[in-house]
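Action item from last meeting closed. Structure (314 res):
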């Protein structure tokens, strides 16, 4: 009997210990950072638990699943959307949102993630439905802004704040993609041809300008050279003329110099005919008078026997 009573007492003690442990477990709760808990007392909202240690009344208070207060990122699958020009495009969206009111997120909406997805899809169709394909492809910032405004306004009463909405991809039909690629390729070829033509034009203009400037500089150089050459010849003639007049030459010296100059007139391979001026006789007479009576004839014979024989060619 004593053994039976001891066993029963031990069982009762074990049951009491287990009950106390269960009560303590259900009474003490630790809420992690960036989490929030909603407490219901007898099925009614009682309070929202903040991060830290809290005590609940066992079997009276019930702690609902914790809510994540951090900003969350949800990527929704591609959605078919019809544009204004009746083309079906597939659009992927990414939504950034954050729970700001745990009570509203728990009691105002059953599944806020699914609600955000459906609201994003319908809003996206309304926004893109008023744009043609080209506008939809080039107006991502405008579409993102409109989506964010509508979603933030609608989800505010759910205790959710939508911070950003991004279009991850806009995929038109394959036939449209091929046409767009051909169009872009043709546009690039056109721009390349225009740039090549402009380059050729500029090259031709610069080449012509360079040739014109070179011709101008060459002509200016030739003109300056001719002027300098003429000035030099003029100065040389002037010096010779001044020297002759300063020396006061007589008729005999002039006649002798005249006869020495005549052979130079016949120099050069192009001279086929040599015309003897009429003044040669007068020059010979002057020399003859200076040297004697036979000198003119000797000088004339020597001159006409040597020089014309070399320069007169058939």
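Sequence:
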């Amino acid at each position: 009997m004593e053994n039976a009573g001891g066993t029963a007492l031990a069982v009762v003690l074990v049951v009491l210990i287990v009950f106390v442990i269960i009560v303590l477990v259900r009474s003490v709760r630790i809420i992690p950072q960036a989490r929030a808990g909603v407490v219901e007392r007898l099925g009614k909202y009682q309070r929202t638990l903040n991060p830290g240690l809290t005590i609940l009344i066992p079997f009276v208070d019930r702690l609902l699943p914790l809510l994540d207060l951090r900003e969350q990122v949800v990527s929704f699958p591609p959605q078919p959307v019809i544009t204004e020009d009746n083309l079906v495009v597939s659009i992927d969206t990414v939504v950034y949102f954050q729970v700001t009111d745990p009570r509203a997120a728990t009691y105002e909406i059953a599944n806020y993630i699914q609600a955000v997805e459906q609201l994003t899809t319908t809003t996206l169709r309304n926004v893109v439905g008023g744009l043609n394909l080209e506008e939809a492809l080039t107006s991502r910032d405008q579409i993102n802004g409109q989506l964010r405004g509508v979603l933030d306004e609608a989800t505010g009463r759910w205790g959710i704040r939508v911070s950003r909405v991004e279009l991850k991809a806009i995929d038109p039909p394959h036939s449209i993609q091929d046409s767009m690629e051909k169009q872009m390729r043709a546009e690039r070829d056109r721009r390349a041809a225009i740039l090549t033509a402009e380059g050729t034009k500029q090259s031709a203009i610069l080449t012509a300008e360079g040739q014109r400037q070179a011709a101008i500089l060459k002509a200016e150089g030739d003109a300056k050279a001719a002027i300098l050459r003429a000035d030099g010849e003029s100065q040389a003639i002037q010096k010779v003329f001044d020297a002759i007049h300063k020396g006061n030459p007589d008729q005999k010296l002039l006649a002798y110099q005249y006869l020495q100059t005549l052979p130079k007139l016949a120099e050069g391979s192009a001279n086929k005919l040599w015309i003897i001026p009429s003044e040669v006789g007068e020059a010979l007479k002057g020399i003859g008078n200076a040297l004697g009576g036979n000198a003119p004839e000797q000088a004339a014979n020597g001159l006409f026997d040597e020089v014309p024989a070399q320069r007169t060619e058939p």
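Note appended to the action item: The CA atoms of residues 37 and 65 lie 7 Å apart.
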